[in-house]
Design a protein that fits this description.
The chain is mostly helical. The protein has one domain. About 85% of the residues lie in helices and about 0% in strands. It is elongated.
């Protein structure tokens, strides 16, 4: 025999759980989410100058290397085309 509780989806039982526990569970879930967001926002703002400085220091050497690499490949491709003609 199938129990009546097995046919009811779990999410349908949630309002009764909230009323049994009061609003403490809802507030705890809300504040834990807000706290996580606040910590994430604060760390993002706090590390922004460090991330900017790191970007300013790292990007130019990478760009120079990339340009040399692509220029070398382009020159090799152009040389190959000249030889084929």
């Amino acid at each position: 025999m199938v129990s009546a509780n097995r046919s009811i989806p779990h999410f349908a039982l949630m309002p009764s759980v909230f009323t049994l526990l009061g609003h403490k569970l809802m507030l705890r879930l809300f504040f834990s989410t807000v706290g996580t967001f606040a910590v994430g926002w604060f760390l993002t703002k706090f590390t922004e100058p460090l991330r900017l400085a790191t970007t300013i220091v790292i990007v130019p050497p990478i760009a120079r290397y990339w340009n040399k690499l692509t220029a070398t490949k382009a020159a090799e491709a152009a040389e190959k085309i000249r030889k084929d003609l």
